[in-house]
């Protein structure tokens, strides 16, 4: 061991005895690599820009500790270098995981990257913010809060950022976590008495991404744990990215201190894709799946389908119809698809919604329309009220009439309750999504 390494190890040993004063700083300093020592300066290597920024903010405190140990005035300089590898006594010890292995470990999907992320005015600000985070991890926008409706690209962009971070530096600790996973993991950790392991997993990351953060709202213990996780990561120079279907101010039952933290960085609203972006997304999907398609045919699909997720479904459906008949999707194939689709589609009725919900929850329609206040009947009834408004656009008084209620206030209460449950309870949301899917398949 060199003199410099020995000196640094001795410094860490002495610092460890006092780490209770500042455990976060100690955990970061342990990751550094001593690079050079002169009469007046020590050069220390760190793994990324976020760690470097964190240390530079605390350089006075670090220099004081170093000077005390060396018994002379010394300054500290921080540079970014790859982490030192342990001695490779065998080929096995020198093995480095592939990027794909790192992506899988971090919870990232193979299909998301910057290469297949199409950019237009509807998501240009979000894309630029993502690039800034890649280049200035932990210091550009922290947290980066992305919100928007279904299929606008929030998850895609967040995962693309994570992949680029790992491409640039394999040593960065990255984790992508759906909001309901964070909740479920913490509940399991409490049950198994392994909260220490849970905190070690989440609190010492360089980048934490929580998808659909709104799912932690209303869960007091979960919010408490996430508050401390957020603070630990941010204070050590790590980056946090959050996605949601609404801005922090609109998330009901979210603690004020978390709302404040979420609003402390950059909040970006990603709008639904415009025509140009939908066309680009469709062409990217076709290229990825080796499907040939005329540009004019792609434009027709993009004009008629506003949902970016629906674009891929239409592309695959049309391609399935032309296999063995044509080499590529053309205008004729697209027009034929939409013509057949329109003939097959029928208008959804209130009775079909009532029947589907009753079948799903095994409730009699007569009970649903009756005065019963039993929870097993009340909740399905409220779901019906919610769907009649959201799926058919019926007015409150009309819904009240269909379900034999005296006035519209019952319907209004049902809409508010179901909207709240959809935000807080992931299993309830899955139930409602299943009902909607059943309705769509029946039309």
Plain-language structure description:
By secondary structure, this protein is an alpha/beta fold. The chain folds into four domains: 3-80, DnaA, N-terminal domain (GMP Synthetase, Chain A, domain 3, 2-Layer Sandwich); 129-269, Rossmann fold; 275-335, Helicase, Ruva Protein, domain 3, CATH 1.10.8; 350-442, Chromosomal Replication Initiator Protein Dnaa, Chain: A, CATH 1.10.1750. The protein has helices spanning 3-16, 23-29, 49-57, 59-70, 99-105, 124-135, 154-168, 179-192, 195-203, 220-235, 256-262, 275-288, 295-304, 308-322, 331-344, 350-361, 365-368, 375-392, 396-402, 409-424, 426-442; strands at residues 33-37, 41-46, 75-80, 144-147, 174-178, 207-211, 239-244, 266-269. The strands form two sheets. A five-stranded parallel sheet has the order 5-6-7-4-8, sandwiched between helices. Strands 1-2-3 form a three-stranded mixed sheet. Strand 1 and strand 2 (41-46) form a beta hairpin. The radius of gyration is 27 Å and the shape is globular.
């Amino acid at each position: 061991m060199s003199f410099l390494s020995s000196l640094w190890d001795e410094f860490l040993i002495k610092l460890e005895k006092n780490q209770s004063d500042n455990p976060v700083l100690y955990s970061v300093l342990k990751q550094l690599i001593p690079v050079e020592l002169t009469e007046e300066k020590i050069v220390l290597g760190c793994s990324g820009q976020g760690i470097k920024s964190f240390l530079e903010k605390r350089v006075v405190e670090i220099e004081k500790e170093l000077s005390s140990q060396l018994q002379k005035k010394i300054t500290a300089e921080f540079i970014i270098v790859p982490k030192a590898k342990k001695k490779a006594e065998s080929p096995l010890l020198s093995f480095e995981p592939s990027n794909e292995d790192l992506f899988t470990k971090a919870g990232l999907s193979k299909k998301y990257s910057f290469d297949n992320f199409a950019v237009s005015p509807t998501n240009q600000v979000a894309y630029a913010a993502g690039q800034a985070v890649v280049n200035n991890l932990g210091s550009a926008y922290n947290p980066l809060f992305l919100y928007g409706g279904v299929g606008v690209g929030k998850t895609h962009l967040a995962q693309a950022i994570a992949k680029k971070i790992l491409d640039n530096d394999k040593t960065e600790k990255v984790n992508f976590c759906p909001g309901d996973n964070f909740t479920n993991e913490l509940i399991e950790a409490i049950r198994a008495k392994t909260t220490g392991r849970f905190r070690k997993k989440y609190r010492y990351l360089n980048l934490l991404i929580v998808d659909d953060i709104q799912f932690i709202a209303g869960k007091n213990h979960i919010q408490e744990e996430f508050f401390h996780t957020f603070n630990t990561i941010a204070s050590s120079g790590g980056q946090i990215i959050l996605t949601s279907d609404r801005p922090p101010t609109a998330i009901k039952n979210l603690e004020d201190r978390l709302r404040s933290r979420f609003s402390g960085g950059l909040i970006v609203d990603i709008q639904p894709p415009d025509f140009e972006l939908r066309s680009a997304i469709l062409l990217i999907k076709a290229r990825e799946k080796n499907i040939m398609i005329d540009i004019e045919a792609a434009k027709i699909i993009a004009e008629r389908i506003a949902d970016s997720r629906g674009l891929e479904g239409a592309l695959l459906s049309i391609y399935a119809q032309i296999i063995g008949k044509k080499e590529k999707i053309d205008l004729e194939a697209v027009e034929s698809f939409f013509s057949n689709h329109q003939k097959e589609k029928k208008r959804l009725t209130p009775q079909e919604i009532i029947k589907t919900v009753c079948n799903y929850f095994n409730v009699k329609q007569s009970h649903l329309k009756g005065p019963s206040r039993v929870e097993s009947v009340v909740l399905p009834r409220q779901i019906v009220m919610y769907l009649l408004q959201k799926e058919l656009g019926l007015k409150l008084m009309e819904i009240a009439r269909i379900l034999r209620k005296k006035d519209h206030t019952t319907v209004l209460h049902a809409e508010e309750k179901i909207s709240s449950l959809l935000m807080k309870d992931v299993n309830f949301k899955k139930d409602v999504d299943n009902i909607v899917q059943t309705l769509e398949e029946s039309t």
